[in-house]
Amino acid sequence: MDAFNMTSMNSSAVLFKPFLSPVVDKTINVLMVIVLFITMISLGCTMEVSKIKGHIVKPKGVVIAVLAQYCVMPLTAFCLAKGFHLANMAAVVVLICGCCPGGTLSNILALAINGDMNLSIVMTSCSTLLALGMMPLLLYLYCQGFGDLQNAVPYVDITVALAMILVPCGIGIFINHYRPQYSKIITKIGLTIMSISSVAIAVVGTVAFRSAILVVMSPPLLATGAVMPFIGFTFGYVISSIFRLSQAERRTVAMETGCQNIQLCSTILKLAFPPEVIGPLFLFPMVYISFQLLEAIALIIIYRCHQRLKKKGKGKEQPFVFFSPYWLHTVQWRLSAC
Prior knowledge:
This protein is mainly α and 338 residues long. The chain has 15 helices and no strands.
């Protein structure tokens, strides 16, 4: 980390004044790790060994996951960072966000758009497991495209953080395999904590960094956060169409590609970089997830309206209400059942 600090000091990266006391900063870091640990256990509880083995024997879904998640999104992040001429640290943040695996939110959105839940769970599982090798490799490759970023990324810290997330994932898989009766409860707790913690991080970050929040809300970063998920959704659908998947599978791949594990991204940014280097930029994932949700909900509404028009005259379709208690219960039940 000392080498990284020296590199940052000697580069053109902007150094931020410390906004939080060391004790408060350490407390936030510990809480983020605990929340991520619980969330990753709940993600592991949605994974089934038999389904993972089945897709390894027939690796079509795995191949699509690798192509969509680790080709489209990192390349999109690189092109946007170059196109908007982002500063060094902002470019690193965008690249890390683009190289992250998929998260549990993609499973919820895939269910909302009537996707293939088995494929969604397997794609999330595979992208998470592959992140240990793919994420540091992609960051190294794409950082070569920037003049002075080759040594600015703490690859060791990121690799250690990724290795640590495989432990709670493994615990979740173990629980789901040997104690499946607890998976539903753990998944429900994990989804709840993920939602509450995301809001809490955004609020705390905004209050703590209120004097520098304009760094994250700058037009280039806002445009990047808006364009990235849209490109992911679009190219995910295109790639799955090339592979001649079914319509349900195409919608699933689209959601999986455009959705990143934002909680993992925020935790890595907060833990791997010194506060004076990362500053308020660790809140960029909150910007990304805001646009990601808005665009995904818009796509779901368009799909639902299309289905309603298509089935008009063939019987009434039950209205779809976002975030109703019944729907959330159905999401949690389907995720634990898949």
